[in-house]
Amino acid sequence: MKTCNIAIDGPAGAGKSSIAREIASRLGFVYVDTGALYRAIALFSADYPTQADFLQALEDAACHLELKYFGGTQCIFLNGDNVTDKLRTPDISMKASQISALPEVRAFLLDQQKSIAKEHNVIMDGRDIGTVVLPDADLKIFLTASPEERASRRYLELEDKPDAPSYEEILEDIKRRDYNDSHRTVAPLKQAKDAILIDSTTMGFHEVCEAILELIEEKLDLE
Ligand code: DC
After folding, report:
1. C-alpha of residue 166 to centroid of ligand 1, in Å
2. For residue 65, with 0-12 CB atoms within 10 Å meaning exposed, 13-18 middle and 19 or more buried, which class applies?
3. Can you give the residue ranges of every domain in the chain?
4. CATH topology of domain 5-213
5. Which of 20, 164, 204, 221 could be stapled to 125 by a disulfide with Cβ–Cβ 3.0 to 4.6 Å?
């Protein structure tokens, strides 16, 4: 049976993950956070002294990634270890943005992402889901917000944590990742021709969810 696939792409910090998770739970779909796959590969790469060693290890199939779901929460296992809690550091964010430009890394993850979408109804979020991974997705959303708004949301999330970065540092980091993600040669971040643009700069979480749920109702036959 053909599965139903929804793609949500957009820059870092646009709210893709929390929105995709909420919509997946409302529809009973599997939520796939593809950024976590790139982050897990970034963590894997840290064990190798050079990029050549790391790419050789990928080619030698030394990196085994598995997604498991616990009550709708995606956990990622790297060679049998649950590394989910190690993936959201600023260091891994920057490294993931760098290694995601390597064609070998993208090829390594492509089949994995496609086969999850073939087996399950999914909402998949990332940078190239509508353009490369699921070009035939049933609905494609490109979710964005101004860099300043994304930095300010991230700042509010982190401000009570010890060693929280300043707003300026977060903004700088977001702009650098936007640049890396949209200027790489392979599968850069860009809006697919048939994707619907949602600019959430002045919208709240629930407003964005409702807008996407309306599009789903309008465009997909989920009965
Ligand atoms: O969504 P995120 O911030 O967790 O993603 C981490 C990095 O992985 C991001 O800088 C770009 C890369 N990425 C990608 O190139 N393609 C995807 N489909 C998802 C993430």
Report:
1. 22
2. middle
3. 5-213
4. Rossmann fold (3.40.50)
5. 20
CA of 221 to the centre of ligand 1 (A): 30
On whether the CB atoms of residues 86 and 40 are closer than 8 A, the answer is no
DSSP H helices, 16-146, are 16-27, 34-45, 51-59, 90-99, 103-119
Is the shortest distance between the CB of 127 and ligand 1 below 6 Å? yes
Look up the pTM and report it: 0.93
Q: Separation of 97 CA from ligand 1 center, angstroms?
A: 6
Report the alpha-carbon distance of residue 158 to residue 148 in Å, rounded: 15
pLDDT in tens, 34-93: 999 999 999 999 999 999 999 999 999 999 999 999 887 899 999 999 999 999 988 998
Antiparallel, parallel or unpaired: β 122-126 and 81-82: unpaired
Q: Which 3 state secondary structure label does DSSP give 7?
A: strand
